[in-house]
Amino acid sequence: MNDKEAEKHRYDNRAKHAIDNSNFNNVNNLTIPLKAPYNLYRNMITNHCGNDSFILEIGAGMGENTEFLLDIGARVCATDISQHSLSVIKSRFESVVNAGRLTTKVADMEMLPFNDGLFDVVVSAGSLSYGDHDTVLNEIHRVLKPDGAFIAIDSLNNNPIYRFNRYMHYLKGDRSKSTLIRMPTMSLIDKYTGKFGHAKVKFFGTITWAFPLLSKVLSEQALTKLSNLIDTRFNIRGSAFKFVMMAVKNEK
User: Fold this and answer.
1) Which range marks the domain in which residue 151 is found?
2) Residue-wise over 130-165: b if at least 16 C-beta within 10 A, else e?
3) Number of domains composing the chain
4) Mind listing the pLDDT tens digit for each residue in 88-122?
C-alpha cells in the first residue's frame, strides 16, 4: 500500500469512527491560544467572498472548516480522497446539500477534476502535505478565475522542535513518510509567491511548543497575549508553528 492509499485508509477509518461516536472535531474546540491563525484564515475568506462566490475546498476531511464556508453564504464544493469523510459532510449538512449550495466530490488534489478558471476561491486547511507541491500549486492556480484567491492555513516545518514532534508521530504510525517530507516550509511559500506574483502571509506560534508548560501558570487569555506579542514583536517566520497565506491570481 502506497502512502496515498494509506492516508485514504486512515481517514476512511477516522470517518467511520466519528460516525459511530458522533464526534466531529471543530476549530471551535481549540483552546484560545491556538485559535488566532484560524481566526485570520476565516477573516481572509470572509473579506474576499460574497454570497455569489464559488469556493473549492481541498482536503475537506469531515467538514471541520466547511460549516464556516457555508455560514458566509457561499456555494461550496468540498473535495477529499476519502469517500467516507465526504459522506460525513453530506450527512452533517444535508439541508444545504439539498438546497444546492454544497456539493462533494472525491478528488485527488494533484488531479482536480474541474475546468480551468471555475472557482472564485480555493481554500485549504492543513492539507498541503498530501500532494506533490508543484503539481498541487499548478492545479490550484489552473482552476482559479482571474483575480481568484487561494487562501490556506497550514503548519510550517522549519522549526526543529516541530519537525521532531512530527517525526515522532511518523514513528508511531500517525502519519505517512510522504506527508512528513512534504510538510510546508518557507521554500513552499516562496513557490506560491512566485507563481501568483504576490502572497500575503502571516506566521503564528513560535512558542506553541511551550504551551503545555506555560498553561500551568498562565490563563488562556494571558497565554494568547504572550504568544501574539512574541509573534508580532520578533516578526517570526521560520520558527512559526502555523502560517496563513492568501495569494491572488492576477493575469493580464
Assistant:
1) 3-248
2) bbebeebbebbbebbeeebbbbbbbbbbbbeebeee
3) 1
4) 999 889 998 888 999 999 999 999 999 999 999 99
